Amino acid sequence: TTNGSAPLKRVLVTGGLGYIGSHVVVALLSTGQYQPIVIDNGHNAYDEALKRCAEIARDDLGAEAPQPILHRVDLRDAQAVDDVFAKYDSEGGIWAVIHLAALKAVGESGEIPLAYYKVNVGGSMNLLESMEKHNCKNIVFSSSATVYGVPETIPIPETSPVAPESAYGRTKAMVENIIQDLCRAPRKDQDDGLRAVSVRYFNPAGAHPSGKLGEEPRGRPGNLLPLLAQIAVGREKNDLKVFGTDFPTPDGTCVRDYLHIMDLAHGHVLALNALTVPSSQQNIFSNCDPKDGPFRAFNLGKGKGMSVMNMIEAMRKATGFDYKYEIVGRRRGDVPDLTADPTLAEKELGFVAKADLDTMCRDLWNFQTKHPNGYGN
Ligand code: WQD
């Protein structure tokens, strides 16, 4: 389908039903240039999310808005992944991949590491193999600040050593290495092989300002913000547990760099635009050492650290809810502070996480109160 001028470029979004994935789909749709094709196994998401994306796109662009396409596919099923690529070969193929599908709970990854390696690493290998086979050369990979482990310096620059402290973090670091080795592989010419940007997220928070899209994991949320929202709206009991107050941080609780989900989603579009600039022009790979291939990693964060207590207070302010909490022991894999140095992404991608904490909490609360029972049945 075309938007009246150039034909839409197909972008495969793995995990596109998820919290970050669905907001990335909205960011792609609202440019009017991309046709998002989602593959997701629905393990931690609802199809309803994509209906909301389509609704938002129509609100933004009118009836002509591109509509997302969904294929229910599990990345562990190599044939099913390849069938999706093959389906579009005769129509010009898939132009780029934004790869978000993964298991992503830091604590859980220590309990079921093999599941994390099979999905996050095995699934990525199936995807990368099909990209190679079907000549798809552009990938934005969803990585994570957790690859830094306990960083040497805060705020964390991209040059900080990759030394993950959790199985989850190790799967993300491993896939970055696999992708980088593919980018390094010998190629016929500069533009012929895989080009990649790994975006290392800090902590996404909030929801689309329309209140139509938000974070709806299946079951009790593991992450702090959606849990605080569900407690305030009465979906979860007012029994928050704070995992440790003995960290070397101002108030003893972990510090994280929270950024608005729409800023993060927009960061993916900026990464995609940057990595597809042909090598005949100055681009983000121009200064890469040829032995390293066209691979770049960028932190997507705000550069502002907030503690667990800060977040509880911010959500108390946004919801008017009087949270009760119990202080318990540390959660496996948690590190004291993950705050980004966001200057490289700003300089090279034009990425700035603008929305402030109150906006994140207000948008999150707006979504939660509009859909007290979420996307669920
Ligand atoms: C934040 C803080 C918890 C719940 C997330 C993603 C992960 C990765 C990194 C993407 C921590 C504390 C939480 C609770 C608590 N991002 N907490 N009680 O661990 O930073 O991980 O960002 O790749 O995929 O999940 O975020 O929200 O789980 O925890 O005290 O009930 O809140 O200990 O200090 P985290 P989180």
Instruction: Report the span from N to C terminus.
Output: 32 Å
- Helical amount among residues, as a percent range? 25-40%
Poorly predicted runs are none
Question: What does the overall shape look like?
Answer: globular
**Total helix count?**
11
Ligand roster: UDP-4-deoxy-4-formamido-beta-L-arabinopyranose
Radius of gyration: 20 Å
Describe it.
Helices cover 37% and strands 17% of the residues. The mean pLDDT is 94. The radius of gyration is 20 Å and the shape is globular. Strands 3-2-1-4-5-6-10 form a seven-stranded parallel β-sheet, with helices on both faces. Strands 7, 9, 11 and 13 form a four-stranded mixed β-sheet that branches. Strands 8-12 form a two-stranded parallel ribbon. Strand 5, helix 6 and strand 6 form a beta-alpha-beta unit. The protein is of the alpha/beta class and 377 residues long. The site of UDP-4-deoxy-4-formamido-beta-L-arabinopyranose has 20 residues, from helix 7 and strand 8.
What key phrases describe this protein's structure?
alpha/beta, binds UDP-4-deoxy-4-formamido-beta-L-arabinopyranose, 7-stranded parallel sheet, 4-stranded mixed sheet, about 375 residues
